[in-house]
Write a structure and sequence with these properties.
- 2 copies of one chain form a homodimer.
- Chain A has 11 helices and no strands.
- Chain A is mainly alpha-helical.
- In chain A, helix 4 packs parallel to helix 7.
- Chain A is flat.
- Chain A binds a DNA duplex (30 and 30 nucleotides) through helix 2.
DNA sequence: CGCGGGGGCGAACGCTGTTCGTTCTCGGTT
DNA sequence: AACCGAGAACGAACAGCGTTCGCCCCCGCG
């Protein structure tokens, strides 16, 4: 073991420059690293600060608070959503589905980040980029402007709540919970409901728990798009 | 000011019996009182205990933890949802809309309680009661079983995320935020987006912020139901 | 009459987001 | 070249969170 030497006094004591110099971007990246590793509830100011080798108070010079940090993280993640090379109006339904799948994939890849999305309107450029593409596709399909505007809302909600649900299960799996057994339990519970009050749910127990998350999501988007189709002006 | 008298020693000092004797039901009711008054973030174990004139540790004899308390509260609230007297298959779309409106009304009346709903499958009798009614309506309309099962999911997500969003705005209003001015700000922001990247959103600024929450909700449900209609077997 | 068990609860633990006040650093101005 | 002030960095602290521990008391059963 080497013995401790006193610092040479005329050497400026300078901490290792290895760590990046604490910019808003560095905060966002550190936050996302923590998010991916431990989920949204693990993203605390202390944890993020630790990731950057500092204390929580230091973060407030670059970010107004935790809420702003989370919104910046969401915006960054939204940037990972890849859009089709160009809109193809004749394939509008299929392309919108592609965007939905892609958004769901990206959000789910970052645990439960979508909770932030449920908390308000997001106006960052990366989210708007996706919205611009989708709304263009809807308009080109002949869907009225007001319908297209509302539809953007609806699709966003479907994506967000689905991604959130999906992330809960992946978190459960990561925590060692047997999700298959859980759904088996749900099915058995439904199948044993009192016949006089819940005849249908009881009978449909198997149907209710059928299908994985992707299949259910795909279906819901398809239903919504079929509904939109009925608004097309001819 | 009346001076304090010492307690008469042979009188059993008995705290006012007015407060109910701490049952799970009493916890749930106290929790909902706090929820209605201060919103979900105000529902802390300490706050609920205080509402019952005791300390937080006392709650754990009746409830396994905060999560269970919240789920019990959600179940209780779900009991307030009133269903039509009887299903009328020929009016299935209108009746499902009525149920959605009613559910949205009830949930929104209890602030942001729906956040709990987003956190997992709820199997309490009150929630199942609504599900049984809706699924019966769908089946009677000729919608295939698997479609009906998935649709239940989709409608639930629409209701939950919409009620959550609506509660955020009522909370903002209660906090003195001018929501109209907020939306004006959003519209102006959209209208000033760079033309070359966001021509459509820029142009649709007015359309995007048009309509209140109820109108948007109504529309989304209508779209989803039209989509479901296309699955009816003849 | 005795006693066991469970509800009630004060205190504490280890967290959280945020603020305060101090120290440090560094670029621009005398 | 000397100085100075603005902003970044940050240690410490505050108020509050969910939950647990350990003790007291009281009720009901044997």
């Amino acid at each position: 073991m080497t013995s401790e030497m006193p610092a040479i006094p005329w050497h400026k004591t300078r901490k290792a420059d290895t760590r990046q110099p604490l910019t808003p971007d560095a905060l966002v990246e550190a936050g996302i690293r923590v998010l991916d590793r431990e989920g949204l509830e693990g993203v605390t100011m202390r944890r993020v600060a630790q990731e950057l080798g500092t204390g929580p108070a230091s973060l407030y010079a670059h970010v107004s608070g935790k809420d702003e940090l989370l919104e910046l993280m969401l915006e960054r993640v939204s940037g990972e959503i890849r859009l089709p090379a160009r809109p193809e109006p004749e394939r509008w339904k299929e392309q919108i589905k592609e965007v939905c799948r892609e958004a769901q994939r990206v959000y789910t890849a970052h645990r439960d980040i979508t909770v932030v999305s449920l908390g308000g309107i997001q106006l960052g450029p990366n989210k708007l980029r996706v919205a611009e593409f989708v709304v263009g596709l809807l308009l080109s399909a002949g869907i009225p402007r007001q319908v297209a505007a509302f539809a953007l809302d609806g699709l966003g909600q479907l994506i967000d709540s689905d991604a959130y649900e999906a992330s809960l299960y992946t978190t459960k799996i990561a925590a060692g919970v047997d999700v298959d057994a859980y759904f088996d339990g749900v099915r058995d519970y439904l199948a044993r409901l009192p016949e006089e009050r819940f005849p249908l749910l009881r009978d449909m127990a198997e149907t209710m728990v059928h299908g994985d998350g992707d299949e259910r999501f795909e279906f819901k988007v398809e239903v919504f798009l079929r509904g939109l189709e009925s608004y097309i002006e001819r």
